## 1
Amino acid sequence: ATMPPLLAAMSTAGRHGVLVKNAVVLERLADTSVVALDKTGTVTAGRPVLEEVRLLGEAPLEHEQVLRLAGAAEYPSEHPLATAIVTASRQAKVTVTGASDFVSLPGRGVTATVDGHRVEVGTADRLAISGPAAQRARTVAHTMTDAGHTAVVVARDGVPVAVLGVRDVARPEAADALHRCTTLTRTPPLLLTGDNAAAAARVAASVGITDVRAGLLPEDKVAAVNELSQRGERVALVGDGVNDAPAMATAHTGIAMGQAGTDVALETADAVVVRDELHAIPTVIALARRARRLVI
Ligand code: ADP
Ligand code: MG
């Protein structure tokens, strides 16, 4: 017996590494007019590496102390930046367990209590830090950012003690896969990221994306999707993080990167990329279109 075209397409998509939740999703994917992607973990492989630690303050902490505070505070986080920091802490033989009162602030960073101190780790522009040390932290962060790093500030009891520079490069197949998206939808893909503009621009340039929206909180990603929808676009939103889930739910279709994907993203998504590579995106859109032509 021959399978109905939509079912057959869902099965083919599965073989190409995309699990499509149901046939309705496949029809919606066929309508995609533009692909919007998250940066960290989506356009990048999401395996960032901590490359720089700049100590701040009048009486700087030891390098190991900073890795202790940051590693322990990040240990419960699922974010790729957290993984980079925890890995570096472990490599320095620093204990990363024992934090309490962990709070994750999507698009901003984390806070936790470590060794009796209130520790914040996150983006320089959105942390609750002030005073001359905060100004210095932001200056250092901007220098790192200009050098292509994602800069993350570590604060202890409200005082910045270090800036960490993390590097995350685009997936090797990203430029080709995104070019295929442009050919399919006739609209170039765009980047929606919570990271800073310089880091975003660098990754975007390396994969041929020109439309970049940076510094977005989860609700700003939703607003960006809504704005596109109001212009008549049918957005396929590809992401991996907790911060992407609301925008995924708002978009015409939400697609989660399975490997790096957080539970919230996987549950919210209409389709999940289980093979860890971006070619799955244009492939599933093309399959969806072909299936629809067979149905009509
Ligand atoms: P993206 O949209 O590119 O996936 P996010 O919205 O997840 O990025 O994060 C945006 C920014 O918030 C990061 O570049 C970082 O500065 C900060 N951030 C988010 N989560 C964390 C974390 N767990 N630790 C440190 N910084 C974080
Ligand atoms: Mg992400």
## 2
Amino acid sequence: MTAEASTSVVELKQDGDVLLVSVNNPPVNALGAAVRQGLMAAMEQADASAAVKAVVIVGEGKAFIAGADIREFGKPPVQPFLPDVCNRIEACSKPVVAVIHGAALGGGLEIAMSAHYRLALQNASGGAKLGLPEVSLGLLPGAGGTQRAPRLMGVNGATELMLSGQQIGAKAGLAAGLVDKLDDGADPVATGLAYARELLAQGAPLRPVSATPGRLADKAAAQAELDVLRADTAKKSRGLFSPLKIIDCVQAALDLSFAEGLKFERAQFLACIDSPQRAGLIHAFFAERETAKIPEARAAQPRAFSKIAIIGGGTMGAGITVSALDAGLVVTMIERDAESIARGQANVEKVYNGLIAKGRMSEEAKAAILARYTPSTRYDDIADVDLVIEAVFEDLEVKKAVFKELDRVCKSGAVLATNTSYLDIDAIAAVTSRPQDVIGLHFFSPANIMKLLEIVVPAKVAPDVVTTAFELAKKMKKVPVRAGVCDGFIGNRILATYKQAADYLMEDGASPYEIDEAVRGFGFAMGPFQVTDLAGGDIGWATRKRRAATRDPKARYVEIADRICENGWFGQKTGRGFYLYPQGARIGQPDPEVLAIVDAERARKGVTPRPFTAEEIMRRYMAAMVNEGAKVVGEGIALRPLDVDVTFISGYGFPRHRGGPMKWADMQGLPKVLADIEAFAKEDALFWKPAPLLQQLVAEGRNFDSLNK
Ligand code: 3HC
Ligand code: NAI
């Protein structure tokens, strides 16, 4: 009887008087339709069989259950629905125990909360990871989680999980009221069976969470907590749809019966499913996992590496050093002279001292990490390293000299990488006798924090050097994106284009403050002129001066930023740029003198300013971004549109809930985006030249996503 009820993804086994229910749906036991059906059948069997006195649910492999099957969202729903599965588990007439040894996330934790008892394993390999991450997918726990979690953990405990999306371990789960018992055992089955027998021996009762208000019993106190949270969430959620809906669902848990609360939750969940934010966030989730799937991965195993060298200990060199040390690597930093290397070391220590000051690291931990760090001014000291990352000045001649040295000293087979932002990596590789070992590793500032790593693949690099770079990214917990060689690679090349669109908007009539406000309104943390002030206006100015000789004389060039720099106004560091920063303020104030410069430049060029709404600003800003993105994909600089999306989400503050620029364009409809570009081209045909790929996709009735498959 037992074997008959088993399915390929949910196996049932009678062990004495306990029914063991094993979910086996690799890689993470997501709750696809077959698993939901299997769990329903398991509960039927438990109820029907007199031999079953208790039920134990476990997950096979590394996870308990990582949640609903995200791939099913947006498709027609298939029965049985997850909330019904959870209710069925809770309604089982025999005590049900959930044994959590790995990830119990989203719907997985909702299954566990529907069981009558929860046992969490804690062991050396990590143990239970409990979380309700739906918010990061634009959703809310939709299988009773918003109703059961507050009953188990109280308003604050439950909302902390639901609003942050973060995971907690077994011990924290016990403290929060989510877990009944901890165990150090490594075998979920044996531990679970033992616990079930212990409960049976005690005559432990069925304990449906829905049956009592639990930690919501003090309604007035719970309401007070929720009122504070609502105000706080309204302030912090910055246009996100699901966080306030989560608060509404917890309010329903306070006000309504469990059954009515579930109905309310279901309606809110479906509204979230229908929202474009859900589509954007789920696209981002899968896209971030897809970028590591590269053509080289099939053929080439990564080279082994444990010892690495960083050349240059400035802003980037120090940040990359911290990233490498945190990844457990042994690092030698090379600088020009004694003074520079002391500064480089100080730059590294500053990061760890900051953590110590915040109480997030001990002096001992810092010392243990720095034991793997060696400062040096001698290239001969890095003869035996496996991998080098160069982060010296952005000057081709300086970099060529460094690579000649690396070619001289490094062992054969060492990977030689450059962190250049714009320079031609083929030209850098050409000065060595081993271009097959030379690659670009473009980190973002601050390198120890920013997730994006553009892996720039020059013409002659060997496939196993590319896979080694992806392996390094994994070790450093970065989001890697494969890029081809061109001026600015994927990110900075597209940035240069939409920054130009912003400059044109400014000269044509929008103030820099209106543009920044529109861009923030779209969901970016900062507008382009705020970013310039933060990075330092002098950096872009130097690049513009360098490129003046090669600029197309027919291309429109806006000089407003140059006028501002000529005054020595380089942004935050000089107290003024596009904004004023009195007394070291970090948030700028509009500057009437900047507006006067803008007016004067318009007058000098004979431009009659016209008003732009925020919507018009964003249409141009985004059209420029998408058009250049399409060129980058069309030229093969990015493998797929999703690589552009991930670049912007992880490295340029693009609002994640919009899924990235290419996903955004798909959601607008490509014909509409192309029509905008063609309309703008009537003003400036050179800048607004439509990308051939965009034209082709529109002609074929396809979208960018069709190229992601
Ligand atoms: N559904 C479908 N596929 C999933 C999935 C899910 N819930 N979770 C992970 N996967 C897939 C990944 O896409 C990946 O596929 P690939 O190998 O083809 O690229 C594979 O499983 C392995 O995933 P990771 O590479 O992320 O593996 P890790 O070991 O690094 O991480 C994890 C494991 C922590 C479970 C991580 O995958 C994760 O966070 N998953 C998402 C969990 C989540 O958000 N759950 C909530 C879903 S929404 C929900 O439950 C709604 C409910 O309330 C109604
Ligand atoms: P930086 O000026 O802060 O640091 C450069 C360091 O290189 C200095 O400490 C200098 O002493 C050292 N150096 C110069 N020549 C050297 C040599 N021959 N041998 C050893 N050390 C030498 O510059 P930053 O900002 O760290 O930039 C470094 C590289 O990273 C550049 O190529 C830049 O384009 C790139 N980059 C910079 C980003 C940023 O936001 N600052 C972002 C991404 C890449």
## 3
Amino acid sequence: MIEIDEKDLHYWLEHVKIYANNGKVADYIPALANQQPEINATAFYPIGDKEVACAGQADYSFTIQSVSKVLTLALALIQHGEQAVFSRVGKEPSSDPFYSIQKLEVEKPSKPLNPMINAGALAVTNMIRGRGSDEMVQEILNLVRLLADDSSIDYDEEVARSEFETAFLNRALSYFMKQNGIITGSVEELLDVYTKQCAITVNVKQLARIAAVFANDGKDPDTNQPLLPSHVARVCKTFMVTCGMYDASGTFAINVGIPAKSGVSGCIMGVIKESGGLAVFGPALDEQGNSVVGMHLLKDLADDKRWSIF
Ligand code: DON
């Protein structure tokens, strides 16, 4: 059992916050471009009905962006099962950036390599049940609210609209997949759902609680009630290890050694098996689109706590 208290979080966050100077806030989604690089926060949500520990601006809200890919994958697996989901998306890591289109053309059959890259996540979102985009978004929100134990969670309309209006690459990926039979229906409707799932807003305490459900094999970290089937939690965690940090996943596995998922808003959720969920936020990103402060904090805490699963 790994224990992380508020003193640990304060100490390490203080130690790594300077690294924000080495990164750059994402600006390809216009509404993210004005995030303040000096904002940072971290939280650890322990399993076993204990208090959440936090440091920094822990009530500051940010959009989950690519972290949503784990949650829509969980939902699609619950709704359709592994066979159906993996007929549309692969299980292999990619060494390309998250937005890359090139493997779609060379892979045969032409399905996206995994559900953590944008193409794969779009294919997964396309499978979510609902009679239109509003119902699909509602399904996703219901799952996020359940895992975070907070029914007030919603998406940020401005960030969703800003991404919807500028998501030319994600549209291109979607049309390519539609041509190849991986995606069905309206691409505009798919982009509507996808940009809203990415714009779901949380703070680090809520994100840490979501991670804690995965750390507890799909069960509520406080009550042990099942919230996700354990095999779904296991599949999601495995993708977090192999693909969660994109083309930095190998280095991250060596340096940090836990399932984790990042988002371009600057958040990272990390899963510490049987101990709890960790969340970090710091909007300055490295070349791979991962939070610089988050990466340093996780590496230093990993060395300190020796939590690597390997
Ligand atoms: O689709 C996009 O480009 C964004 N909404 C999400 C990408 C993302 O978060 C990648 N993560 N580091």
## 4
Amino acid sequence: MSQPQPRFIILGAGMSGILAAIKLRTAGHTAVSVYEKADRIGGTWRDNSYPGLSCDVPAHAYTYEFAPNPEWSGYYAPGPEVQAYFEKVVADHDLMPIINFNAEIIRCTWRDTPGNWQIETRDGRIAEAEFIIAATGVLHHPKTPDIAGLDDFAGVKFHSARWDHSVPLEGKKIGVIGNGSTGVQLVTALAKRGIEVVHFQRSPQWIMPVVQFAYTEAEKAVFRQSREAIDAIRYDPVYFGNIQRFTKGVVDTESPMMKEIEGYCLMNLEQNVRDPVLREKLRPTYRAACKRLIYSPDYYEAAQRPNLLTITCGIDTVLPGGIRDKDGGVHDLDLIALCTGFHSDRFVRPISVEGRRGATLEAAWKERCNGYYAISIPDFPNFFMLNGPTSPVGNFSLIDIAERQWSYIEQLVARVIDGNARGIAATTAALADYESRRITAAKATIFGSGCTSWYLDAHGVPITWPWDYDTFAEAMATPEFEAFEVI
Ligand code: NAP
């Protein structure tokens, strides 16, 4: 190493970036800086604040392992509470002084000189580091749909991740386009408030029934006293077993686990949507869990309210005063909320990353985004990703995923520092072998069984970890160092 104290630059102060910063400092590293383009921490939980936002992973499981939170209000936590949790963790670990806000990194450049990486911010700041941790998130760049007439809408319109809280909702007629997790949470919340909603669904969704409940003060008092009581929920054999079964089901589409998931979703639809016409409208034509499953305790109940109209025939045109559907129905609207998802293939971009031997991230990812075990890219030494391309995605905690990835990354970091080396990166051969195995397996997962979703890359191949949870946990426990080039 050229420096006595290795320097680390973390891209992004969302869930993964906060994790990396705390882990590095806990390990004794003192030269750690976080660069965050916004003016607050929180990533996706900062950007999303639409009504009804909640985390569909049990709150005690959507928590850093090192920072349990006895104060969660219920089994599932509302979005603002999750954001507040991250803010408290940042404060508790005194991270604010090392976070550079309003600091959008536009370029990371590897140099074959001491210092390794140079970064540049949009406002011209330059810094150097031996290591870069890319914690830039997955669902970050809102996708605006290409729908005829959308620009001509005379009312208010915004994307769900850019919610304008200055716009009053009561008494308004709101059109919601899209029914991923966001659209479903939003229409459920609006409908329960008695607001008139027209929900435009291009594809219906399978809905996994779940039970939400609040924790009593007595329960919270127990959580404050007992880590075991918290862990009993975090590692509840039913919940954790469900994840293991879910991930086994996802990779074996004919497995009993997958049939069980399908059975729950089908039973939910059949038993809880009384009107046969609405029931058929809400019945998907693809397999359950092909798209990310919607976990909802109350969507079907909301969908049957008279103030929530579900339109499944498609959108013909957006008019200045509303939306005309493909059956010719015209829906007058005051506001359109675009719950149309994100450009999930951006990952680190638009940051320009230039590695060794003239490598650029843009060129490396021309065909598809990837990384060896989702973490390292050949010719980008000491550039490690959290929740990067080919990471596990699904109905489980991405905090847990990032924590396991961190345990892998810290072993790579130690190899460089302890070996007095300059850097480490996966070899081209190792990535090619991983990708060949991964793509074959990914095509056979339920995600590749014939639906559209943000899990798919431009070739229609799931850009996900295609093996089960235990395989991931095992892979992250110890790096296969022969897959890496040390320089
Ligand atoms: P999404 O799952 O990508 O859903 C986008 C929706 O917009 C889909 O229903 C899609 O229809 C529709 N759509 C896109 N373009 C359209 C067009 N031109 N015309 C009509 N409809 C269009 O996005 P999301 O709901 O924001 O969720 C993204 C992810 O965020 C989730 O899968 C989840 O991982 C995460 N999330 C998590 C939580 C949580 O509780 N943990 C909450 C919210 C979001 P098609 O299906 O037909 O393409």
